[in-house]
Amino acid sequence: MKRLEGKIALVTGAGRGIGAAIALKLAEEGATVIVNYSHSETAAAKTAEEAIKRGGQAETFGCDVSDMSAVDAMIKGIIKKHGRLDILVNNAGITRDNLMMRMSEQEFDDVIRTNLKGAFCCIKSVSRYMLKQRSGRIINISSVVGLHGNAGQANYAASKAGIIGLTKAAAKELASRGITVNAIAPGFIQTDMTAALPEEVKEKMLSDIPLGFLGETEDIAGTALFLTLDDARYITGQVISVDGGMSI
Ligand code: NAP
Q1: pLDDT tens, residue by residue, 8-65
Q2: Considering the entire predicted model, what is its pTM?
Q3: Is 16's C-beta closer than 6 angstroms to any atom of ligand 1?
């Protein structure tokens, strides 16, 4: 018996990278996955196709997670079609790196809007349905940078630290109705986001990882799956570092 049979899951920014790996992992366990994207429609369609091959059901939904009314329309559409929503993974995220002295207001606002406001919009919108259901699992993707900061990423670090506060507040607000809210703080995971970094930055990061190797999207997907299962029913408001020991 697959462990997520009958469950409906929304993964934001799931066309590629960590989001795609999480969507596929949930689908392998039998979930129906809504693969959200903002620009990468073709990639999202490929994720959905692969999710179906792996034994789940899947569909795509294009929507900018930082647009409250667009998010409300997406969630309404999911509820209308499937009658429920069991799992929300707030994965969508961007970087606009720069030293603070050079960082534009636009670069700061864009990152906070997508990474932090985007998660708020999705939680706000799904929570009314999860409260009625008296069940739900919400997983927010933070970062090691949200825990420890990083030069050149003040906007990103603030957004990811904000995700941790949002996770804890939402966990307290929603716990009485059986909804858990947790965050995952990945370290250095090989995706498009990190591929763009200069070689010397990657080498420096590698030297800061006690386990001595870079993470893969599967490492985050496995933790996300665990948080959706009954095995994790007594865990809420937590931040789980998946970073090869970077944050020790
Ligand atoms: P990625 O490969 O750059 O993918 C980012 C995803 O976010 C894309 O699917 C993108 O979709 C989506 N997205 C961006 N803006 C969006 C918006 N406004 N609405 C909906 N979707 C949007 O990044 P990744 O490395 O997989 O990162 C995924 C998450 O993990 C992010 O939150 C990131 O901050 C976090 N993280 C990553 C690492 C790492 O080392 N890779 C470490 C710590 C945390 P479109 O292409 O359709 O825009």
Answers
A1: 999 999 999 999 999 999 999 999 999 999 999 999 999 999 999 999 999 999 999 9
A2: 0.99
A3: yes
Instruction: Indicate which atom in ligand 1 lies nearest the CA of residue 217.
Output: 26
Helix (H) and strand (E) counts for the chain? Answer: 10, 7
Catalytic residue at 156? yes
For ligand 1, atom 41, which residue shows the shortest CA distance?
189
Our answer on whether the CB atom of 242 is closer than 6 Å to any ligand 1 atom is no
Query: Cβ(66) to ligand 1 under 6 A?
Result: yes
Å from CA of 63 to ligand 1 middle: 14
Mean pLDDT of the chain: 97
Which DSSP letter does residue 229 get? Answer: S
204: left (phi over 0), alpha (psi -120 to 50) or beta: alpha
Pick the closest to residue 143 from 110, 194, 92, 184 (CA basis): 184
Atom 3 (ligand 1) nearest CA: 193
- pLDDT, position 1: 85
- List C-alpha distances in Å: 28 to 12, 25, 130: 18, 5, 23
